[in-house]
Amino acid sequence: MTIPDATTMRELIDDCAQLPFALTHPEHPLPAPREAAPWQVDDRCTHQVEGLAEYGV
Fold first, then answer.
1. How far apart are CA 28 and CA 19, in angstroms?
2. Taking the mean position of all CA atoms in its chain, how far away is CA 19?
3. Which domain of life is it from (predicted)?
4. Torsion angle of alpha carbons 31, 37, 41, 45, nearest 10°?
5. Cα–Cα distance, 17 to 3 (Å, whole number)
């Protein structure tokens, strides 16, 4: 299912009103975020984007 982005301020406010309870009530906070795994670019990743600079990407 795809939910379209808000295009007006009213739609944005309505979207925010539907935030989950845990995000809108600090007395019931979400658990602390986990530490992210280290991010690395290997040769395989580099090869996938080789030549994209020629297309202005």
1. 14
2. 15
3. Bacteria
4. -70
5. 15
Give the CA dihedral 42, 44, 46, 49, nearest 10 degrees.
-150
End-to-end CA distance of the chain: 29
Side-chain-side CA neighbours of residue 13 (13 Å): 3
Number of Cα atoms under 13 Å in the Cβ half of residue 11:
6
Residue matched to tokens 């996938």: 48
Is pTM beyond 0.85? Reply is: no
